[in-house]
Amino acid sequence: MDTRVKAVVHSQGASGFDLRAWSSAHLETVEQALSNWVAADAPAGLGDAMRYAVLDGGKRLRPLLVLAACEAVGGHAGAALRAACAVELIHAYSLVHDDLPCMDNDVLRRGKPTVHVQFGEARALLAGDALQALAFELLTPDDGTVSPVVQAALCRLLARSAGHHGMAGGQAIDLASVGLALSEAQLREMHRLKTGALLQGSVLMGAACGVASAAATVALGEYGAAIGLAFQVVDDILDVTADSATLGKTAGKDAAQDKPTYVSLLGLEHSRTYAQALLEQALAALDASGLDAAGRERTQALRALADMVVNRNN
Amino acid sequence: MDTRVKAVVHSQGASGFDLRAWSSAHLETVEQALSNWVAADAPAGLGDAMRYAVLDGGKRLRPLLVLAACEAVGGHAGAALRAACAVELIHAYSLVHDDLPCMDNDVLRRGKPTVHVQFGEARALLAGDALQALAFELLTPDDGTVSPVVQAALCRLLARSAGHHGMAGGQAIDLASVGLALSEAQLREMHRLKTGALLQGSVLMGAACGVASAAATVALGEYGAAIGLAFQVVDDILDVTADSATLGKTAGKDAAQDKPTYVSLLGLEHSRTYAQALLEQALAALDASGLDAAGRERTQALRALADMVVNRNN
Q1: Among residues B223, B185, B186, which one has the least CA distance to residue B201?
Q2: What's the CATH number for B2-9+16-311?
Q3: How far apart are CA B131 and CA B139, in angstroms?
Q4: 3-state class (DSSP) for residue A280
Q5: pLDDT band for position A2 (50/70/90)?
Q6: pLDDT at res. B256
Q7: Contact A165/B at CB under 8 A
Q8: A92-136: per-residue pLDDT in tens?
Q9: Residue B113: enclosing H or E segment and its boundaries?
Q10: Is B172–A45 a contact, with Cβ atoms under 8 angstroms apart?
Q11: pLDDT for B95-104, tens place per residue?
Q12: Which end of chain B is more exposed for a tag (fewer CB within 10 A), N or C?
């Protein structure tokens, strides 16, 4: 609790920007859109499993990053809402598959039984598969609301972030690393793909909803890479410092599964220092982006989200 | 053997068109493209599992439908090759997941051990996930070779064909139908989604690589629906009439798993009659498409493929 309050105070203190109010307004829109778009009518219980996997849970960090990056470039809000939901569907599907018995075999997620516990393994598998497809369906409406150029760019970014050189590749490394001693470089590469790619992809997808200069796009990519890595470092810290109730998932499971983590590699204090350094990197990238030419209003949500990623308590 | 020979003779006899030669030339291109595009460099064994799932196997019916439909509308060959490979990746991922122990628990596919037998369940799961993402990556190159309008249309068609109102939805119905007595309408709906949607999607994606009239698009959709259903009817027939060596997969497994099939519902002879009627429907749709205004050359590959779908022996 303390850290979250501190994070909000920090972000308000730095800029007068109220992240909690900003997030709350956007999250209401995102939750409503997800509820509308995630297939209640999918057959044979598939829709129920998909909705269970997606609705009423999660911090929605990725959607918020999409929306914040879209605001930073003055992009198209309708496209960004679709991109925000699409990224969240990819994240949700990855959790469903990651929790399966043949992967992490986890039974608790966001304080609820995992999808396969609730709906059976086969339906969980299919729900994950269908959520991935639905993500790309959301990005390609045929109602004229989003230009084909933006649709193609969003599909490209999402596919790359989710695939073998992104999230799925990182999960494969994770799987192959259990019980191994990784170097810091190897651990960073694993997390750059497993968690970082989709977080960075969220930022770039938000930027793709508008017209960003090449310099701004590079800067937003650097911002996304820094907070992507910071997210995982903090995850590793929380896995050993927080309890399951606060996390809404099983605490201490990395150690229990003998997985390499930043804490096991760097120790707790160095991990905390590293997370703060990554926050500074993310903010410095925004400083250099040219997006603040007329003041910091456009990047303030991205700045506050970076602070929240590093100083969160769950 | 007899049926396949008959199919080729039939298609040659009808139009002088040599499907085997046409397929052989296109398949060489498709195989090479798949080998180039399916990630040998994906980390931690993921690339090996992905390539194992995709390369050196399968009839490649879906890619051939994409290419034939593209030819029918005089579309962009480069876009069609990407679409052909993308559809095959979706098909391949669905087989990998379908074979998992929590689904059909099959150990033989295309005459080889299934992916999870060869690489373990977790890596098979991830390989399937990564193949789905890669399909959309193939559809969205940033090298200027495919227009954003076509990229967006292809992603839209593929996502809808693969998702909850397509293939994944059909698999959910299949899963929920084991041991149940389905009506013919229910069985048709299951297969329309499970198998038909991606076959029809293949035809429509090929058409989306060019400019087709509204009437031609409708006709190609009807053609795709008819052969999609015919494919499954023939699959059900072969499951009871062919042996595992000919099929390259376990024969008789529908009956062993107490799954409803056309043969169990209609009987063998009526199923055969139904398959032939669907072939006639598919050909009639092409007749009405307006694509043959200057002769049948443009639709001859589609015609021969429909014949092959119905008169194949594996």
Answers
A1: B223
A2: 1.10.600.10
A3: 13
A4: helix
A5: very low
A6: 67
A7: yes
A8: 999 999 999 999 999 998 889 999 999 999 999 999 999 999 999
A9: strand B112-113
A10: yes
A11: 999 999 999 9
A12: N
Distance of CA B37 to the CA centre of its chain: 19
> Cβ contact (<8 Å) for A152 and B156?
no
Q: Over range B53-67, report the average pLDDT.
A: 93
Contact B53, B128 (CB under 8 A): yes
Q: How far apart, in whole angstroms, are the C-alpha atoms of residue A274 and residue B45?
A: 30
* A242, two tokens: 């927080």
Q: In this prediction, what percent of chain A has a pLDDT beyond 90?
A: 77
Positive or negative: CA dihedral B96, B97, B98, B99: positive
Q: Cβ distance B130 to A164 under 8 Å? A: yes
Query: For residue A122, which residues of chain B lie inside 8 Å, CB to CB?
Result: 102-103, 175
Cβ atoms of B2 and B310 closer than 8 Å = no
Contact indicator for B173, B190 with CB cutoff of 8 Å: yes
A–B: how many Cβ contacts below 8 A? 193
**The predicted structure's pLDDT at residue A19:** 96
Contacts of A126 in chain B (CB under 8 A): 97, 168, 171-172, 175
Q: Which residues of B74-87 are buried (b: 16+ CB within 10 A; e: fewer)?
A: ebbeebbbbbbbbb
Cβ distance A18 to A305 under 8 Å? no
Interface test with A, best of B132, B180, B204, B205 (most A CBs within 10 A): B132
DSSP state of B195: I
Mutate to test the interface with B, among A131, A164, A174 (most CBs of B within 10 A): A164
Structure tokens at A309: 């990623």
Dihedral angle computed from the Cα positions of residues A74, A76, A81 and A86, in that order, rounded to the nearest 10 degrees: -100
Q: What is the least distance, in Å, from the CA of A270 to any CA of chain B?
A: 28
**Among chain B residues, CA nearest to A168:** B130
Letter string b/e over residues A76-113, b meaning 16 or more CB atoms within 10 A of that residue's CB? beebbbbbbbbbbbbbbbbbbbbbbbbbbebebbeeee
Pick the CATH number of A2-311 from 1.10.3720.10, 1.10.600.10, 1.10.10.10, 1.20.1640.10: 1.10.600.10
Give the integer Cα–Cα distance in Å for B207 and B66: 8
User: How far is Cα of residue B154 from the mean position of the Cα atoms in its chain?
Assistant: 16
User: Which tokens go with B76?
Assistant: 């962009």
- Are residues A11 and A308 in contact, defined by beta-carbon separation less than 8 angstroms? yes
Residue type, B155: C
Q: Quick one: B243 exposed, middle or buried, by C-beta within 10 A (0-12, 13-18, 19+)?
A: exposed
Q: Which residue of B has its CA nearest to A45?
A: B172
Rounded CA gap, B55 and A256, in Å? Answer: 38
What ranges do the domains of chain B cover?
2-9+16-311
* B128 contacts chain A (CB < 8 A): yes
| Interchain pair A156, B168: CB under 8 A | no
Residues 6+ apart with CB under 8 A from A181: A260
Six token digits for residue B307: 């014949």
Measured distance CA(B286)–CA(B304) in Å, rounded: 12
A230 class by beta-carbon count within 10 Å (0-12 exposed, 13-18 middle, 19+ buried) = buried
